[in-house]
Fold this sequence. Notes:
Blueprint: H1 2-25, H2 30-66, H3 68-77, H4 93-98
Helix pairs in contact: 2-3
Amino acid sequence: MKKINKKKLIxxxxxxxxxxxxxxxxxxxxxxxxxxxxxxxxxKINIENLETENQRLREENKKLEKDAKTWxxxxxxxxxxxxxxxIFLFKDEEELKSK
Length: 99
C-alpha cells in the first residue's frame, strides 16, 4: 500500500512541476504573455499620446508660419525681445520670501 502512495505522490509532484513550468517558467508561459500584453497596451497608449502631441505641434507650426502675431507671442513667451526694447521683471512676494 505504501508503494502505491509513494508512486502517486511522485506523479503528483511531477505533474505539479510541469504545470508550474508551463504556467510561469516557459518562454511562452501564460504569465509572460500577460506581461507582454500589458506592456503592449502601455506602448499603444504612449503612441496615441505622442501622436496627439505631434498633431498639436503641427498645428502650432502652421499657425507660426502663417501668423506673425502668433510667432511674436511665442517668442515673447520664450523670453525674446525686440531690438531696443527694455524688459521689466516683477517678482512676487512669495519669490522674494523664499530667497
